[in-house]
C-alpha cells in the first residue's frame, strides 16, 4: 500500500539529509569511509532487529523519531528500512570505486531517487505495470544525467567518459524501476550499478 504523499515528502527529506555522504566519499580517506559506513550499516541492522523484537527503550524511541516516515510492513514480518542497505552500499562503493565515482553515485541516489519519488507521485499520469510512472523515471534520468555531467565537467573528464557515465545513470534508472521485482533495495543497487559502469566499463573499452 502506498503511503500518503505528505509521508513520502517526510521520507525524502530524511533522504536529502544524507547529502553529506557524497562529500564524505569525495573528500575523506577511502578506508575511513569504509569503516564508518560499515559500522553504520551494522548498527542500523542491530537497531532495526531490536525494534522488531520490541526491545524496551529502543522501540519506543525509534518509533517516536521515525514512525511517521516508515513504510508499514506485514504484521509479524520483518523488513529492513532503507538505511542498512544504503550504508552497506556506501561501504562497498567507497571500497570498490574512486572517490569521484563513489561521490557521484551517491549524489545520484539521493537526488535522482528523491526526484523520481516526489514527481512520480505528484505528476505521474502514465503508470506502468508495477505502479512506477513515466514521469518519475524521466525525472530520475534527467536529474542523474545533470549530476553525472556536472561531475565530469568539474573533473575535466573526456566526452567518452561522460557518455559512459550517462549510460551508468540509465542502468541505475532501470534498477530503480524494477526494485520491487528484483527484491533488492534501490538504496543498495543504484550506487553500485552506477559505480560499476562508470569505473570499469571505460577500462574494458580502452
Written description of the protein model:
This protein is mostly helical and 206 residues long. It has one domain. Helices cover 75% and strands 0% of the residues. The chain contains ten helices and no strands. It is globular. The N and C termini lie far apart (47 Å). The relative contact order is 0.13.
Structure characteristics:
mainly alpha, globular, 206 residues, single chain, 75% helix
Q: Tell me the count of domains.
A: 1
Strand content: under 5%
Low-confidence stretches: none
- Report the average pLDDT across residues: 89
Number of strands: 0
Q: Largest beta sheet, briefly?
A: none
Rg, Cα atoms, Å: 17 Å
Element layout with pairings:
Elements: H1 5-16, H2 20-27, H3 30-52, H4 58-66, H5 83-96, H6 99-123, H7 134-154, H8 159-177, H9 179-182, H10 186-205
Short description:
75% of the residues lie in helices and 0% in strands.
Amino acid at each position: 500500500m502506498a503511503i500518503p504523499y505528505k509521508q513520502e515528502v517526510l521520507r525524502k527529506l530524511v533522504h536529502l539529509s544524507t547529502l553529506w555522504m557524497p562529500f564524505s566519499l569525495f573528500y575523506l580517506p577511502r578506508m575511513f569511509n569504509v569503516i564508518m559506513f560499515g559500522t553504520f550499516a551494522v548498527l542500523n541492522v542491530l537497531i532495526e532487529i531490536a525494534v522488531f523484537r520490541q526491545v524496551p527503550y529502543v522501540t519506543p524511541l525509534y518509533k517516536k523519531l521515525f514512525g511517521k516516515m516508515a513504510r508499514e510492513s506485514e504484521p509479524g514480518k520483518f523488513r529492513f528500512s532503507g538505511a542498512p542497505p544504503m550504508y552497506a552500499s556506501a561501504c562497498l562503493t567507497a571500497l570498490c570505486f574512486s572517490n569521484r565515482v563513489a561521490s557521484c553515485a551517491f549524489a545520484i541516489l539521493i537526488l535522482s531517487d528523491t526526484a523520481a519519488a516526489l514527481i512520480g507521485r505528484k505528476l505521474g499520469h502514465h503508470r506502468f505495470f508495477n505502479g512506477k510512472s513515466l514521469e518519475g523515471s524521466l525525472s530520475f534520468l534527467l536529474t542523474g544525467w545533470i549530476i553525472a555531467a556536472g561531475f565530469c565537467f568539474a573533473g575535466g573528464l573526456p566526452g567518452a567518459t561522460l557518455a559512459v557515465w550517462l549510460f551508468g545513470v540509465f542502468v541505475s534508472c532501470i534498477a530503480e524501476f524494477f526494485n520491487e521485482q528484483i527484491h533488492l533495495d534501490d538504496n543498495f543497487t543504484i550506487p553500485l550499478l552506477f559505480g560499476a559502469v562508470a569505473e570499469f566499463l571505460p577500462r574494458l573499452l580502452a
